[in-house]
Amino acid sequence: MSASAKPISNTRSVTGIPTARLITWWVIASEIVIFGGLLASYIMHRIAHPEWAESASHTLTWAGALNTFVLLTSSLFAVLAHKAADAHDGPKAAKLLRLTALGGLIFLCIKGYEWTLDIREGFVLSSGGFWSFYYTLAGLHGLHVLAGMIILLIVAADAAKNQELQRVECIGLYWHFVDIVWIFLFPLLYIAR
Amino acid sequence: MTTEAHVQHPNYVKVWAILVALLIVSVLGSMSHIREVVLIAAFGVALVKAYMVAKNFMHVNVEKRWVPYLLIMCLLFVAILFAGVAPDVMKHSGLHWTKNPADQSVPSAAGAATKNE
Predict the structure, then answer these.
(1) A contact test, residue of B3, B24, B78, B89 with most A CBs within 10 A
(2) pLDDT, tens digit (0-9, with 9 covering 90-100), for A28-62
(3) Mutate to test the interface with B, among A75, A89, A166, A191 (most CBs of B within 10 A)
(4) What is the CATH number of the domain that holds A26?
């Protein structure tokens, strides 16, 4: 495919930023408001309800810490994929993107295990204010991880053929944002008791 | 078309190692029974980690200046939301008002029912 036949998102950079990356930043900006609103709501309710500390004491700190480690490591793979893409090494970038997606899969497996234990102990969405926020925040974040994994694998498939390498950075930006959200969810849901 | 190399790539493994070390600090800090230590270990370290990811992995610092402005603006919107809503959520009473008017209406309704009997 010739450069002139490329979608406008890949070729235009009116603002000085390639349009694809510009769109990614706007997506992240809107996500800041979505997650920020939820987190702000949780924080004000948590301060108003000190008794939620008892509910929070039932969350598994080791699982949250392990998931933080997994996401930080997957972010490392994502940024190394960006570096490989900058060096025009598509196959290496694809391999690293698949490792990033694997990190997402491990994250979701740990989360699934953790939720199974919580539900077996009787802590469900309707068990109280804390658990409503816990499942909503972690669930919405988990959906973002799942969506990111799917996009990572699609981008990796093209990158393996040395195509559309500019997308590697874009999906990396999104993935790092998902990592940052978890960086704040971990202390809020697992450490503050 | 390949990606444009607009950033100098730092030593990412070193950055990752620092982030993992900070994670360990936050977990160890959470085991403390001193409230201030727990808060700093939890939220202070989280802020540092988020800054490091944004700077080193997302390269916000070398992006066009209006990108961080855009992100900060969205954070300000969240702060405005918090400032506007928090007093209603976090305070239980104020000048000429108390929270949970429904709770107050229940006894009076019960009282009215008794009176009718």
Answers:
(1) B3
(2) 999 999 999 999 999 999 988 888 989 999 999 99
(3) A191
(4) 1.20.120.80
